[in-house]
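Students often ask why we bother encoding 3D structure as a string. The short answer is that it lets us treat folding as translation between two languages. Here is a chain of 248 residues written in the first language.
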Amino acid sequence: MLSAEALAGLPEIAPGADLAALIAAHAELRDGDVVVVAHKAVSKAEGRVRRLAEVTPGERARELAAAHGKDPRHVQVVLDETAELLRAERGVLICVTHHGFVCANAGVDASNVAEPETLILLPEDPDGSARRLRARLRELTGAAPAVVVTDSFGRAWRHGQADVAIGIAGLAPLEDWRGRTDSHGRELRATWIALADQVAGAADLARGKDSRQPVVVVRGLERHVLPPDDDGPGAAALVRPASEDLFR
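And here it is in the second language, the structure alphabet:
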């Protein structure tokens, strides 16, 4: 059985907060658990915050802002987080981040931010963030749950957003069924399950977008959780190389 339970009672996360200690104080963790954390909690704790009053937009930001009806300071922050701008359309900038993620506005967001005129950025190294959280949780609790850091991404050809894994420690990110056979004995050629993204989506169902519950504990995935001394390849394993990307 798979279960997902959002942690209640966590305070607003401030820069410098010991996020693992807050989680440990609100959950009885055990080996085999998966702790799923919305990236904004991680980003806030790591100080990945930009205040618009401190941003000076450049010429490119001003041009894009004028063309798409956006605040040029906000656009400048997006450009600062962007390795490549793929498309600007209908007020949305489709960017390749410095991590290699392809997403809207380079993951820069103003929702669920307590301070006005403040933007939250993606963690600088989401896999590193997940590994540090896992190590600290083990130090505090003696258990070594897997950790998944998530964000909401749009999907090509489909309306709506779904949570995906952008940082992983201790969980196999993919389950490869290629070369196995289906129930009729046919060889599977393309079945490569994005396990960590499915975990991210399941966790998101357990909390409301306005619930202030950034952490969800998922149970029932023990066979996919790696040993305490193995953090695995991280979410980097989910990023398709540009040479294989048929949609750019």
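Translate back mentally: The mean pLDDT is 94. Keep this in mind for the problem set.
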